[in-house]
């Protein structure tokens, strides 16, 4: 028996007509086709179902054993839709009362619906695939689906969209420093916005932003202190940047034009205490959450001490470049920062070792 299988991957039939799927048999399939054509005459799945009926009638006139059915997926994505089609194909095959071997001819309206072919092939042999498209728009849906697949693939998306976005940014950058007349301003702004959009799509910034927002929402409702620590740390970073710029302005007012090493030293010297406070805040927030979750390890407690060690070293080195600290202070700070990191590492390593040993020695007693 040949099963003429009309595939509606995004379930236009069910959503637009309320028909329960799968639809099996010529008359039920004809009723479904008429209902879908009445609900949405422009839907391409109408052509798919009528094509299935046409093939059924042609084979039936030649006294061949044939059946026609319509199976649908969902509009929730390719994977979910393919699984739904697989379940409906199983239902159709179970309903066929025949001792003959069943093969199928798949009718689709484009490349997107054909993505379900491996799912169907795993259940029943396929004799062929018939794609139905409107003659006036031949290959239009296939081209759209191909472009959509390219934009959804992270590797291909980055390869295509990022260079194109950079090219679109060249024109507005070329206008900088020149008289911006109204036509040029409009075109430059449009080109810049389009270029930034393509770059953001190429880098997947939208998905990353969604992930960050979802993480923040879950952290907020879960009472995670990390979220609060990050907010405080961001404010401290801003204050550190302002403090660093103020220090740089003071150095330039005193010494005039200075070189890149002095500029960097001034920025670090003025902001390091704020940055260190931000680092300690975030590390303590993370440690608190790990402790509450019961996953805290002793070595995690090294983080605040490492931040302080690095801050001490950077403060001394930047102060030395600005003549705010002498050689003796630099040597003492380097030694203190190094020892602080080493001592904290050894201390928490010993505590972790003893804690682990204690757990091991207590386990046999409980047994």
TrEMBL record:
Domain of life of the source: Archaea
InterPro entries assigned: DUF373
Pfam short name (any one): DUF373
Record keywords: Membrane, Transmembrane, Transmembrane helix
Transmembrane segments: 158-176, 182-199, 227-246, 258-280, 301-322, 328-351
Protein's name according to its UniProt entry: DUF373 family protein
């Amino acid at each position: 028996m040949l099963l003429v299988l009309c595939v509606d991957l995004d379930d236009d039939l069910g959503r637009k007509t309320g028909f329960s799927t799968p639809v099996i048999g010529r008359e039920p399939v004809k009723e479904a086709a008429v209902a879908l054509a009445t609900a949405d005459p422009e839907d391409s799945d109408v052509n798919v179902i009528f094509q299935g009926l046409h093939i059924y009638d042609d084979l039936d006139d030649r006294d061949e054993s044939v059946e026609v059915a319509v199976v649908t997926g969902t509009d929730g994505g390719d994977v979910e839709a393919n699984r739904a089609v697989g379940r409906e194909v199983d239902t159709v095959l179970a309903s066929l009362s025949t001792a003959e071997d069943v093969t199928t001819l798949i009718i689709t309206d484009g490349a997107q619906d054909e993505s379900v072919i491996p799912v169907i092939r795993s259940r029943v042999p396929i004799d062929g695939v018939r794609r139905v498209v409107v003659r006036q728009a031949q290959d239009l849906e296939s081209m759209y689906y191909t472009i959509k697949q390219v934009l959804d693939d992270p590797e291909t998306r980055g390869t295509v969209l990022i260079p194109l976005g950079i090219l679109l940014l060249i024109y507005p950058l070329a206008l900088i420093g020149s008289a911006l007349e109204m036509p040029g301003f409009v075109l430059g702004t449009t080109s810049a916005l389009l270029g930034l959009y393509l770059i953001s799509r190429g880098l997947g910034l939208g998905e990353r932003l969604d992930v960050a927002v979802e993480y923040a929402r879950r952290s907020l409702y879960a009472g995670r202190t990390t979220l609060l620590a990050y907010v405080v740390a961001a404010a401290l970073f801003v204050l550190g940047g302002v403090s660093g710029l103020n220090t740089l302005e003071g150095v330039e007012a005193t010494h005039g034009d200075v070189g890149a090493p002095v500029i960097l030293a001034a920025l670090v010297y003025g902001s390091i205490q704020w940055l260190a406070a931000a680092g300690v805040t975030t590390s303590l927030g993370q440690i608190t959450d790990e402790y509450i979750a019961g996953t805290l390890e002793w070595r995690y407690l090294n983080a605040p001490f490492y931040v302080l060690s690095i801050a001490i070293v950077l403060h001394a080195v930047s102060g030395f470049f600005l003549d705010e600290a002498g050689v003796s202070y630099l040597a003492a700070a380097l030694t203190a920062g190094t020892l602080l990191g080493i001592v904290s590492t050894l201390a928490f390593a010993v505590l972790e070792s003893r804690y682990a040993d204690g757990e091991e020695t207590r386990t046999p007693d409980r047994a």
